[in-house]
Amino acid sequence: MMEQYIIKGGNPLVGEVVIGGAKNAALPILAAAVMTDGTCTIENMPDVRDTNVLLQAMEGIGATVNRLGKHEVVISGSGMNADCDVDNEYIRKIRASYYLIGALLGKYKRARVALPGGCEIGSRPIDQHIKGFKALGARIEIENGMITATADELIGCHIYMDVVSVGATINVMMAAALAKGNTTIENVAKEPHVVDVANFLNSMGASIRGAGTDVIKIKGVEKLGNCEYSIIPDQIEAGTFMTAAVATKGDITIKNVIPKHLEAISAKLEEIGAQVDEFDDAVRVVATKRLDSTQIKTLPYPGFPTDMQPQMAVSLALSNGTSIVSESIFENRFRYVDELTKMGARIQVDGRTAIITGVKLFTGADVSAPDLRAGAALVIAGLAADGYTTVSDIGYIYRGYEGFEKKIQNLGGDIQLVNSEKEIARFKLRIV
Ligand SMILES: CC(=O)N[C@H]1[C@@H](OP(=O)(O)OP(=O)(O)OC[C@H]2O[C@@H](n3ccc(=O)[nH]c3=O)[C@H](O)[C@@H]2O)O[C@H](CO)[C@@H](O)[C@@H]1O
Ligand SMILES: C=C(OP(=O)(O)O)C(=O)O
To answer: What positions constitute the catalytic site (predicted)?
Structure first.
């Protein structure tokens, strides 16, 4: 038996939890760090599977990676060269490997990288990345699962993105940072992690303005240099604990966050009747009673994040009345619904819409995580359920949550990591 979580539901989560650095900022920042032959010292690096896979891949192509403790890393790209290929079994499984295309294309005018993986939440094309690289003057070839981008030189240009894409915005911004002349990218993503990567590149000597608005303007520079940087807190890890407070009728103070980044989530939780208090760098979420239903539509930032849709749906599945959740970003992000149904949830999916009829209580069941956020959502469901729940395929959860079960245990949640039937029996009998 592979590792699983076993959970005995029923305890409200109460206490404080400290949020780590944002995975989806950390990944492009790591890739951007090798765009200089100098050194980048990066703090608040989350110690999660995806960042570790990317760090290994970077070492595999000659970058030097020195870890100063669990959350600080010093990176130098000086040992790398222009004809490195980025590929291994693991790099093919993560999404953010595609950031090495923009980073290496910018630095060497050549990049050859395995096509990206990531959670199976939709078809996930990369046409907008390619459109941006081509507009900068790159030639693109895709064969045998690899993408190759080459250019004699990259020349600044004007790009209008057809869809708002986090990945394409960041990737093209990285390549354009080392292009000749000025680039304007319109209809860009405005997520906090887009802004964080622009700030990181600027701290290396890039000249990028407008990140966080619809238009990013980049003045190409010849090279980038050393920097020291601290990654922003993870908006989605924070949101996950916010919804855990609601689903378990708990009281959690979530520390080391930027409350502004959480506004879409806070507003929805307040709308359904939770108490949300904002502090300078913390939010407290209290839910003492059963909450109300609502409607949610996932949208690019500052709309409600798709990466919070499954966790929020779990809270709504325990609320009074009928809620409607529309998923407008990824067409296949309701795969957790069948699992949640095993626990007594009443959810009907029709295409990109889920109609949720709230139930009073879930009952424990054996469920399996179909992807990262759905996995976290099923854990929350287990914490709120009557009886025992096992969650398998938790490797997905490790992709993006550091010490998930420990943080939950510290809040009073009854959860254990197990890898045998014997351990499950022990947990149930409380034999230590
Ligand atoms: C590693 C990382 O940061 N992953 C996040 C990133 O994924 P990712 O960067 O893959 O998501 P995008 O923002 O690019 O995708 C948004 C939408 O644009 C479409 N699209 C995207 C690119 C493209 O070239 N063509 C195209 O049509 C996608 O299919 C999707 O419908 O942003 C998503 C949206 O916030 C999050 O759910 C992911 O957690
Ligand atoms: C979908 C996610 O990640 P990825 O894009 O890496 O699959 C996520 O972080 O929720």
So the answer is: 119 (proton donor)
